[in-house]
Specification:
Number of helices: 6
CATH class of the largest domain: Alpha Beta
Strand order of the largest sheet: 3-2-1-4-11-6-14
Order of helices and strands: EHEHEHEEHEEEEEEHEEHEEEEE
Shape: globular
Number of strands: 18
CATH topology of the largest domain: Spore Coat Polysaccharide Biosynthesis Protein SpsA, Chain A
Structural class: alpha/beta
Helix content: 10-25%
Number of domains: 2
Radius of gyration: 18 Å
CATH architecture of the largest domain: Alpha-Beta Complex
Length: about 280
């Protein structure tokens, strides 16, 4: 079984929504799509897909973790974990991933930046909740997985949480996804109407910290050489473009989509233009 588990938040990319719906209809015995929503889904999502609203915590990995605990997944199932702000160009990546996972354990879309030195004992002064103030990165790890976090990893290979593919047996082998469930907390709007976490921390704070916990496990459990990508280009591949907080951005151009009416955010002006 090929499974697509989608972290539902934006729910506004027609290429992804329509593409997944068509793929599922044409391959109903072999493909299952499930939306793990962090807020109430649109009527379109409700009508087209299996879905469930989960507590909005843990960023993308919180959605994935809650979904795999809810679903009945076989060990041999190949799971695509996707954020919903992806521009889908082609599903031709599916056979490439199926073949690639015969040797690799985790496959991302565009190559991500490696982490030169990741110290699991680094202290985070302002925690995601008050009870986490002054705790270390390791304290955000599920208790049953903390034995894995025992050293600094140098040159840690990383994958963005917006697209990763794994066999479910490997998800189980690494103890599921971090962070620990009592670290689930949702962002709130500040006085300027911007979503922030406690201490007025921007979305990118925990949006980076939590993925790194999982990247640590990818490297520790499987090895950095068992992490692969569909492309050497950040955010972009011939198959998928990973938006940045819901937007195609000018400093990381999307390829092969000219004339498709894609809106691009100019990172210098904040204005949008159309391809």
């Amino acid at each position: 079984m090929i499974r697509f588990i989608i972290c539902g938040w934006h729910m506004n990319q027609p290429s992804l929504i329509n593409g997944l719906h068509d793929l599922m209809k044409m391959n109903s015995d072999d493909v299952h799509v499930f939306w793990a929503c962090h807020r109430e889904p649109t009527e379109e999502i409700k009508e087209k897909f299996d879905h469930k609203v989960f507590f909005n915590g843990g960023e993308e990995y919180g959605a994935y973790e809650q979904a795999v605990n809810y679903l009945d997944i076989d060990d041999d199932d190949i799971c695509f974990f996707l954020h919903d702000d992806l521009v889908l160009k082609s599903f031709d990546f599916i056979p490439l991933v199926v073949e690639g996972l015969q040797d690799l354990n985790v496959i991302g879309n565009g190559a991500n930046y490696p982490e030169p030195s990741y110290d699991i004992n680094e202290v985070i002064e302002i925690g995601i909740k008050e009870e986490f103030d002054g705790m270390t990165r390791k304290d955000y790890v599920k208790e049953e997985n903390q034995h894995l976090f025992d050293k600094i990893i140098l040159d840690m290979n990383t994958i963005r949480p917006s697209f990763l593919a794994m066999r479910y047996s490997d998800v189980k082998k690494m103890g599921g996804f971090e962070p620990r469930h009592d670290a689930y907390e949702y962002p709130r709007k500040n006085e300027e109407g911007v979503y922030v976490y406690r201490g007025n921390k921007g979305m990118s704070t925990w949006g980076n910290e939590f993925p790194q916990l999982n990247n640590y496990k990818f490297n520790k459990v499987f090895g950095g050489d068992k992490i692969g990508y569909l492309s050497k280009t950040y955010l972009d591949s011939p198959f998928v473009y990973e938006c940045a907080r819901g937007n195609v951005v000018s400093d990381h151009p999307i390829t092969e989509m000219d004339g498709q009416g894609i809106k691009v955010k100019d990172v210098k002006t904040g204005k949008f233009y159309e391809l």
